[in-house]
Specification:
This protein is mostly helical. The chain has helices spanning 2-31, 35-73, 77-80, 82-109, 117-140. 20% of the residues are buried. The chain binds protoporphyrin IX containing FE (HEM).
């Protein structure tokens, strides 16, 4: 299980590299005016999105594998760990955010993203907030044994 958890964390870090940096690239892309610079951003965004997909898939695979291990070895694991329910809600929001990044990458690739750089800067903060929430839940494990 510790091996699964280790790879789960490596996958999370890989995923977050994209979740934090891709929207930052969108900010610079939205502010760029030179066509050659905008084309370069498109290539960077497309490549970073591929890495972000890989991180998301591996996070899911190793997260589920870790969860399956606990469910097989500790009866009532889900009832003992309500923090995990809250974590999974935040993780679900993170996958929604990821889906929106796919949409924005496509819009930028086709030069039809009309979001202001201010909107994109605020949007860029969302994964950091979710990260703080998830890490507090997995480390502090509030509501443990409640219910
Ligand atoms: C499909 C999504 C996910 C599932 C099913 C999942 C499930 C799990 C499970 C079952 C554990 C083991 C808990 C324990 O040992 O008591 C774990 C550990 C952990 N997860 Fe996830 N997770 C997912 C996504 C994430 C995400 C997105 C993050 C970070 C943003 C994350 C961060 C962590 C960390 C840091 C640990 C280690 C906690 C520790 O032992 O101190 N997980 N995860």
């Amino acid at each position: 299980m510790l091996w699964l958890k280790a790879f789960h964390i490596v996958a999370v870090v890989t995923w977050f590299a994209g979740l934090l940096y891709l929207p930052r690239l969108f900010v610079y892309h939205a502010e760029a005016t030179e066509p050659v610079v905008r084309e370069r951003f498109k290539v960077m965004e497309r490549r970073l999105l591929v890495m972000t997909h890989i991180g998301a898939a591996l996070t899911f695979i190793f997260g589920m594998a870790t969860l399956t291990w606990w469910l097989m070895h500790v009866p009532g694991y889900m009832k003992l760990n309500y923090w995990l329910h809250a974590k999974l809600v935040l993780v679900f929001l993170l996958y929604g955010y990821h889906g929106y990044l796919v949409r924005l990458t496509r819009e930028f690739a086709e030069d039809r993203c009309r979001r202001s750089s201010r909107w994109l800067r605020i949007f860029n903060e969302v994964p950091a907030l979710l990260l703080i929430g998830i890490v507090i839940l997995v480390v502090v494990q509030p509501f443990k044994g409640v219910g």
